[in-house]
Amino acid sequence: MSSLEQHIQTLQQKVQLLVKKHQQLEKENQRLKEQLKGLKEVQTEKKQEFEVLELENAMLKASQHQLDEKEKKELEKKLNRFVTEIDRCIALLTR
């Protein structure tokens, strides 16, 4: 085998290794994207749960007349935001 043929064969092997490595990296990238998507969904759910718990806490305080003016205004804003979100969901469902 000539030197040129050996050189070509070496280059082909290196290209094959690069292609294999590229495929592995593509698979890992896809796996990481899916993992990130799942984590974002969990984060969104936890944020919503937190907001609901905050609202429940504020409502309990309000029912026991333990809210100051600032907390009352924050509660009112949260309730209005929830009502707006519910209205938006209902509008989407009725289309």
Helix proportion of residues, in percent?
over 70%
Overall number of strands: 0
Strand content: under 5%
Radius of gyration: 29 Å
User: What is the SS-derived class?
Assistant: mainly alpha
Total helical segments: 2
Q: What's the pLDDT, averaged over the residues? A: 89
Broad shape:
rod-shaped
What pattern of helices and strands is seen along the backbone? HH
The total number of structural domains is: 1
Largest sheet: number of strands, sense, barrel closure: none
Report how far the terminal alpha carbons are from each other. Answer: 73 Å
User: Spans of 5+ residues with little confidence (pLDDT < 50)?
Assistant: none
Blueprint of the fold:
Elements: H1 3-63, H2 69-93
Summarize the structure.
With 95 residues, this protein is mainly alpha-helical. It has helices at 3-63, 69-93.
